[in-house]
Queue: 2 jobs
Job 1
Amino acid sequence: MKNNKVTIKIPRPLYDKIQQLIEGSGFNSATDFIVFVLRDLMSESEATSSESDEFSPEELAALKKKLKNLGYL
Amino acid sequence: MPEKLVVIGLDCVTPQLLYGNWLEEMPNVRRLIDDGFRANMVSTIPPITVPAWMSMMTSKDPGTLGMYGFRNRASHDYGDLFTVNSKYVKEKTVWNYLSRNRLRSIVMGIPLTYPPQPLNGLLVSSFLTPSKDVDYTYPPDLKHRLDEIAGGDYIIDVKEFRSDDKRQTLEQIYRMSRARFQAFRHLLRTEDWDFAIMVEMGPDRLHHAFWRFSDSEHRLHEPGNEFEDVIHQYYLYMDRELGETLDALPDDTSVIVVSDHGAKGMHGAVCINEYLIEEGLLSVKQYPDKPERLSTDNIDWNRTKVWGDGGYYARIFLNVQGREPKGQIPAAELGQFKRDLKERLEALPDENGNNIGTRVFFPEDIYTQCKGTPPDMIVYLGDLNWRSAGTIGNRTIHIFENDTGPDDANHAQEGVFLWANRGRPPASVEKVSIYDIAPSILDFYGIDVPEDMIGKVI
C-alpha cells in the first residue's frame, strides 16, 4: 500500500493558497486537502470499482481471519 | 438555534427493547425523547450493517452503492467475489458535504470507513479494518493517541461473539463499548467540531450472543439461567454512557440516537442449499459427511440452476445461459423462472409443515439502480425470523443452532431514531427512513439537499 502513490506538480502560488486555506481546518496537509477535493470531484463521475480498490492480500487475509472468528464466514 | 449536532449510533438497538418496559429505567433516553421525538427507523433491504450505515450516511440504496453485503460478486464468474472497503464507496457521505462547506467532523466507528480517507476533521474507522497495525485513523497520528484517550486499549471490534465462552464475550463487549464512549467523549471535549458521530457495535454483538438467554419466548431459552438479565443490564449501561456523553456536550447541542436495524429472536435457520438440492435445482459433486461451506468448486454447474448464500437473509444466484460460464436457465425463460422460484420460496414451511411467511425481493424492483453484480433474489426467510444457513452436509433443511457459531438473534427491518433539541418543534412522525437521515443532517446545517439523495428531510 505504501508505494502506490505518485507525485503531481502544482503551481507554487496555488499550493501556498491551499496552505493558507487549510490552516486551522481539520485537514492535516495540503496533500490531504487536494486528495479530498479530487475524490469529491471524481465521485460525481461514473467511477467504477477497480482492482486498486481491493484490499491488499495481507489485509484480506487478516480480515478473513477476523470475519471467520466473528462467524461471518 | 443549536449549531452543533452529535449522532450516537448504536448498532442493532431495537425499538421493542429501547421503547419497551425498560424505558422507565433509562432516564437519559427519556430525557432525549422529552426534548424531541422518537420514531422507528426503517432500514435498508436487507437490514444489515454493511451496507446500512453507508446507506444512512449517503442517502443512497445498496443498489446505487453497488454493495449488497460485505462480500459481493465482482462478475458473473463463479466464486469471483470481492470484499468491500471505503474505496468502493463512490457516493458522497454527510462528512464529505460538511467538509466541502468548511464544517468540521468527528467520525468514529462507522462501518465501511477503512481505509480512512481525508476529511475536514477526524476519522476512526471500524468493522472491516484488518487490524490495529494498519493506519485506521485520519489523520494517521490520531491512532497513537487513541489507546490513551480510550483508557488503555481502543477496541475496534470484539474478537469473537459466536463463542461458547459467554462470560468472556460479555466482558469483551463491555470493554469495547466503554473504550469507544470514553475516546469519543475525549474528542468531543478537546477538539473543534461542528458535527460528531460515533457508532458502537456492542449492542449488535450482545444481541447475537445473548438473545436466547434473555427472551423467554425463544425456543432455546432456559428460565433462571445466569445470563437472563444481561441484555437488560446492557441497555441500562448504554443509558448511563448516553448520559455521560450528553454531559460532555456544549450547551445547546442537537442530539440524534439511531440504530442501523433492529433485532428479534431467531427461530432457526433454513439450510438454503440443502433446500435447493432437495428441489433438484442444485447439484454438488460431493455431498460432505459433515456440515461445510458450499464451495463453488464443489457445484456441478452443468446440473445446477440456483445456488444460495448464508447470512441473516438468503442471497439467491441463478445460473443463466449467456451470463454465467455454464449457465443452465435459458435467458428467454428467466422471468418465468424467477416468478416460479419466488412462489416456491414463499411457500417454504417450518419443520412441522407450517408456512413461515418468507418474503422475496428482486433487486431491480427495490433499488433505484443496480450497480455491480447484484444477487438475483434477496430472501427474508420467515420474514427474518429464520436465518439462512449456507452450509451443506446437514442432511436436513431446518437447523436450530447457527452453522457459523452460536447466534440466536436475527436482524429486524426497523431500528430506532431519536432526535432531541433540533431547534424546531418536533415532527410528529412514527417512522423515518434510513435514507432520510443524511438529508436531515445537511438541512440542519442549512446545506441544500442534493437532488440525488433518495430520502427526505425529516
Note: The longest strand of chain B covers residues 4-10.
Job 2
Amino acid sequence: MLTADLVAARRRGDELRLAPSDDARRERIATLAAALTARARAEIGSLRDDVEEALRQTATALEEGGDRRLGAAVGKLVRDGLRFEESAGETATELRRELFTQAAAARLAAGLAPFDRRAFLDGFADAHATTPAALETALYADRPGAQRLLAVEVPAPALLAAGFEISEAQAVLLRATKIVAEVESSDAALYRGLFRTLKFLRLLPVITRLDETREKRGGYRVEMDGPLSLFQSGGRYGLSLALALPAIAACDRWTLEADVRWGAERRPLRFRLAGETSAAVATPDDALPEELATFVSAFERAATGWRIDRAPAILDLPGAGLCVPDLCFVRTDDGARVYFELLGFWSREAVFRRIDLVRAGLPQKILFAASKSLRVGESLLDDAPSAALYVFSRVLNVRTILDHLERIAPTP
Amino acid sequence: MVVLPTGAGKTHVACLAIDDRRRSTLVLAPTLDLVRQWYDVLRATFGVPVGVIGGGDYGVEALTVSTYDSAYLHMEHLGDKFGLLVFDECHHLPGPAYALAARAAVAPFRLGLTATPERADGRHADFDELCGPIVYRKDIVDLSGGYLSSYETVRLTVELGPEDRLAHDEARAVYRDFIARNGIRMSSPSGWSDFIIRSSRSEDGRRAMTAYRRQREIAFAAPAKLDYVGLLLDRHREDRVLLFTQDNATAYALSRRFLIPIITHETRVRERSEILAGLARGPADGYGAVVTSKVLNEGVDIPAANVAVVVSGSASVREHVQRLGRILRAQAGKHALLYELVTGNTAETYTSARRRDHSAYR
C-alpha cells in the first residue's frame, strides 16, 4: 500500500486533488512496474537488503529525467508483493543472549590478555554442536534484511497501473478524520458484499438508505470515522479503511468524500473521488474477524441450546438507519432470534449511534459487544427490553453472552 | 524553561512544580520509553492514578503523560483539560506540528525541560512563546563532580591505511569537484539541501552523492578505528561501555566483530530491555558493552554506564552532549570517560570540531 508521502496530490483551495490519471501516466506506471517486477524475479533467493538495493538501482535508472516520486510509489507497490522467508525470531534472540553474555564473561576472564574472538567462537560452536560459520549466519538471522526472497506475487503491470489511482486514494484516506461514501448498484448482492466486507474489516459504518435522505435515487450512504479521529489503533484501522476502498469501488457507481488532514501541518482539506465499477471484490459471506471466529468456535463447542447463523439479515429501521449484525443466535427449542454486533475497540461514537438506533425503535432483539477500552457502561441499555450492551475486557466470554441472550430473548 | 544536564534532576524539578501549582498536569515526552519512565515516577511520587496517551493507550487523568505525537493528534480534546503543561526534552517543541499542540492548549502554567535548548535551525527563538524563557540553567561543567559524576573526554585520532586513504581521497575529489562546479556552499544553511537537489538531477550528481557517501563510510568505519575499539573494550573490560555510531551498518559490524549486543530501531522492546538490564548487571553475569547508533542518544536512563565511545557521529552539538549525558548520572566513586574516535585528514576532523563546540568539551 502507498504511504502519504508517495502520493502526487495538490491542494486547490480547500480541496486535495490527486494528479490527473491519463493513458500516458498509466502506461508509464505499467512500464515501471514491469521493469521492477522483472528485476525482483531475478533476485529470488537473495537477501532482502540486496533485493532492496537492486530495486533502488533499477528505479534510479528508470527515473532518469522522470518523476522520481512516481518511481518510488510503483516501487513500493512492487515491494508489497514480495514474499520473504519467515523471521528466525526467538531462536536468534536466544542465541545472541547466550553468546554475548558468555563473550562478556570471557573478555573479563582474559585478564590483561586481548579477547580472542576466534578461540571463543570455536569453543562456543563446539559446545553447541555447530560451526563458527553457522553461528555467524544465525546471529542476526532475524533481521529483516537477512530474510531471503521466496516469491514475487505482484499484480500484472496493467492491473497495477489500472488500480494505481485507488492505491493513491487509499494512502490519502490514512489521513482522514471522516469518510462519507455513496454507493449505487443494481445488484443487491453487491451491497451485501460491501457491508459484510466493512464488517470483516472491523469498520463501524453508519449506513443509511439514500432514498430516505435524498429524493433522487436509491443506494446507500456509508459514513465512517477516519483513522485520525480515533483515540487508538490508528494504524491498523487505517489499513482496514484502505482495504475497504476497493469494495466501495466495486459498486456500479460510487462517490467518496473525506475530510483529511494533509501535509506536515495537517491542514484540514476535503478529498473527493468518484467512479464506476472497476473490479469485483469478494469477501466470503460468512467470513469473520479473528476474535469473532475464536468466540464462535468456543460457543459452538459449549452446550448452550443455541446455534449461530453466521450470515444474518441486515436490519433496516426506515428513517433511522441500518444495522449490519455479525451473527444471529437462534435458540434451538423455539427458534427465538437475537442478533449480535461486535463494536470492538475503535470508536466510542459508534456505540452511541447503535444505542440511538435501538431507542429509535429497532424491533429486533440485539446484543452489542463493546471493548472496555471504549469507556462505555452496560447501563446505557438497561432500560431497553429488547437490547443489551456487553462490555468485555479482553475476549468475548461465552457464559456472559449466554446470560445476555436468555435475558433478551422472549420467554418460551 | 529549565536547562539541566541529563541526570541532574529535571524530573524532580517537574514533580516539585506539579506539587507547587496543584493543577491538572499534562507531561509531554518525545518517546514511549520516556512516557513509561514518567508514568512510573508520577505514580510513585503522587500516589494517584496517572493517565497515559500514546502507544495504544488513551487514558486521561488529572496527571497524564503523553507522547508529543499523540498530544498533537488529540489536542482538540485535551487542550482545555490541563492547567500545567510539562514539556520534556522541549528542544523538540519548535517543530511545526508539536508547536501547534502547544499553541492549541490553554494551560497558563508551562514548564520546559531540556539539556540542550539550542537548535541548528534557529527555532529556539520560539521557546518564549511556546513554553516561556529560560529561567534557570546549569550545564554539565557546573554540576560535574557533584550532582553529576566527574568526567574526562579523550579525543583519539586514527589514520587511514594507504589503500583506504587512496579510496577516500578519490571519492572526496569527485564530491568536491561536483560542489565546486555547481557553486554549492556546504557551509551555508541551505548547502546540504542544495547538494541533495542538484545531485538528484544528473548522472554526474548521483556519482557525486555516491562518492560523498563512500568517503564518509571510509572515515566513519576506518579499520584502524575499529581496531582501537577492540583495545578500548579490553582496557575497560570491567566497566559498562556504550559505543555510539552514526549508522546501523557500523553498529552491526562492531556487534559482530566484538560479540557485544546491539540496540537499533529494529530491536524489539523485550530484547532491548534485557540488553539494558544486562549492561546494568555488568560483564560478570550480563554485558560489559552495548553498541547503538542513535536510539540511546536521548532520554533513556542507563545509570550504570561509565564509559562512552563515540565511534562516529554527526556534527550536532546536541547529539554529542546527549551522548556524554548517558554516562554522567552520579554514582558513588564513579568517574566517567568519553572517548571520541576521529579519522585524521578526513571531513570527520571538521565534524568533530563542530560537535565539540560546547562548554562540556572545553
Note: Chain A touches chain B through 34 residues (CB under 8 Å).
